[in-house]
């Protein structure tokens, strides 16, 4: 591992920090006038979370023993303590999401919920008090549940107007306090987890692909219109898109495998093609034609997309992917919802996610070559089992993972890639989005809570806490353990 660690000067003013999501950390799921979101109806992994993700309407009518999001790690009541710990590490930026259902509990109201806004007033003020730049995700897997049950989620064009009303409130209220905004978290995830990504129940659909891509179009238009409105309110605000990133490799040098990998990457990138270049790519138009997908567009949609592209491109990166044109080739492995073949050259995490630091450099170069816009690495981290020992929580595996990935990011910057910052995912332990587990821990800060919801919720620093503090203080020069 030490061979990968080099001194690498990151740009002056590079934004080091961490990231969380409201639905995975806040808890207080009905406090302060908050409405329900899709995550609030999901049980833990033991009680059928995967089935509930696929059949949300069925899940709504089922009583489960345990809902992990209902208390989560109680950031709602402990945010001051947590932000103080982030400040102690030296965070320059903190990425968090605002829960749409705290601001508009149903999603289609005329007036916002003031109690919800006051909570985020306090969170943002606490960040600014510690000289931490807020990086706000506007919609991170928490479209109000009512918008799914009444309107069918993002496949319904009405959601554009509801989303813009929500954005208008946020942009006006925080225009002088929040510079960096992300319109949708991992916008491409609607293809893979339509409930979380688009509040769409595909189990009720006769044409799930049509509904998913129609929902994607509505989100892309909403993102462009929000970008336009933000610039009208305060031209200094920076608006970014966000991709569940990672390059897909071909299993072999067989040209069919190479093309299969290219197709996989294109399916991933098309969202950013639209948000960064301002138009649907020709390869996607062919896909629509061959798969009988007919997007309903308004006459002004193309101009809206063309004229309101994003300022920067943010993305998550956990592991690379591997594919083949042969459906029988290789062995499948786990990996953040996306299917992938096992790569024999890579180690895997406790959850089977393939560990590929060089893949981050490859992905950053691919994105920058393709778009020539600043990048922002807003999610990267290792989900692993942590053990409390006499001397504390010695999470050397996490440190090694982050060392290698930060080094790879530095190498990409040396390659000429412009990068604004890095926010390690789950900087404090939180509930897993895909499984509902607490045991899949990412944080520099341990939270005393188990998979069954038991524990004191007390916070405890891990070894990686002091390590990351040193990384930030040295602006990435000192990655040593």
Automatic annotation (TrEMBL):
Which superkingdom is the protein from? Answer: Bacteria
Please give the PROSITE patterns that the UniProt record associates with this protein: GLYCOSYL_HYDROL_F1_1, GLYCOSYL_HYDROL_F1_2
Q: Which NCBIfam families match?
A: PRK09593.1, PRK09852.1
Q: Name one GO biological process term.
A: carbohydrate catabolic process
Q: Which GO terms describe its molecular function?
A: beta-glucosidase activity
TM helices/strands, residue ranges: none
Organism lineage: Bacteria, Bacillati, Bacillota, Bacilli, Lactobacillales
Q: Which UniProt keywords apply?
A: Glycosidase, Hydrolase
Tell me what this protein is called.
Answer: 6-phospho-beta-glucosidase
Gene3D superfamilies, from UniProt?
Answer: Glycosidases (3.20.20.80)
Q: Which GO terms describe its cellular component?
A: cytosol
What residues sit in the active site? 379 (nucleophile)
Please state which protein family the record places this protein in. Answer: Belongs to the glycosyl hydrolase 1 family.
């Amino acid at each position: 591992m030490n061979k990968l660690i080099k001194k690498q000067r990151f740009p002056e003013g590079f934004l080091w920090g961490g990231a969380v999501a409201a639905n995975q950390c806040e808890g207080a799921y009905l406090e302060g006038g908050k409405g329900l979101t899709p995550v609030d109806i999901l049980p833990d992994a033991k009680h059928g979370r995967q089935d509930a993700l696929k059949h949300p309407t069925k899940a709504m009518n089922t009583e489960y023993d345990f809902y992990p999001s209902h208390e989560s790690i109680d950031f709602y009541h402990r945010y001051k303590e947590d932000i103080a710990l982030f400040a102690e590490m030296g965070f320059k930026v903190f990425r968090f999401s605002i829960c749409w259902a705290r601001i508009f509990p149903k999603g289609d109201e005329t007036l916002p919920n003031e109690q919800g806004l006051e909570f985020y007033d306090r969170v943002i003020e606490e960040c600014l008090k510690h000289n931490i730049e807020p990086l706000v995700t506007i919609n991170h897997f928490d479209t109000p549940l009512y918008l799914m049950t009444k309107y069918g989620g993002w496949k319904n064009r009405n959601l554009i107007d509801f989303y813009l009303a929500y954005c208008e409130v946020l942009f006006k209220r925080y225009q002088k306090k929040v510079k960096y905004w992300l319109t949708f978290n991992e916008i491409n995830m609607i293809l893979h987890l339509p409930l979380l990504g688009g509040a769409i129940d595909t189990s009720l659909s006769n044409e799930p692909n049509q509904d998913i891509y129609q929902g994607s179009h509505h989100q892309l238009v909403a993102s462009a219109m929000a970008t336009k409105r933000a610039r009208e309110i305060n031209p200094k605000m920076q608006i970014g898109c966000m991709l569940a990133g990672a390059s897909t490799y071909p299993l072999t040098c067989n040209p069919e495998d190479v093309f299969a990998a290219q197709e996989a990457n294109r399916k991933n990138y098309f969202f950013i093609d639209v948000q960064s270049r301002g138009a649907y790519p020709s390869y996607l138009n062919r896909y629509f034609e061959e798969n009988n997908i007919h997007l309903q567009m308004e006459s002004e949609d193309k101009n809206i997309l063309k004229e309101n592209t994003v300022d920067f491109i943010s993305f998550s990166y956990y592991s690379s992917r591997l594919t083949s044109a042969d459906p029988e080739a290789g062995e499948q492995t786990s990996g953040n919802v996306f299917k992938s073949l096992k790569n024999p050259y890579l180690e895997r995490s406790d959850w089977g996610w393939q560990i590929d630091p060089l893949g981050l450099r490859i992905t950053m170069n691919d994105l920058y070559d393709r778009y020539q816009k600043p990048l922002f690495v807003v999610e990267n981290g290792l989900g692993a089992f942590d053990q409390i020992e006499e001397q504390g929580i010695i999470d050397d595996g996490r440190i090694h993972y982050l060392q290698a990935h930060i080094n790879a990011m530095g190498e990409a910057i040396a390659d000429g890639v412009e990068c604004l910052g890095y926010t390690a995912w789950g900087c404090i332990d939180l509930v897993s989005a895909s499984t509902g587990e607490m045991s899949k821990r990412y944080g520099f800060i341990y939270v005393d809570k188990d998979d069954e919801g038991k524990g004191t919720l007390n916070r405890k620093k891990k070894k990686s806490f002091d390590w990351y503090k040193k990384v930030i203080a040295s602006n990435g020069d000192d990655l040593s353990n």
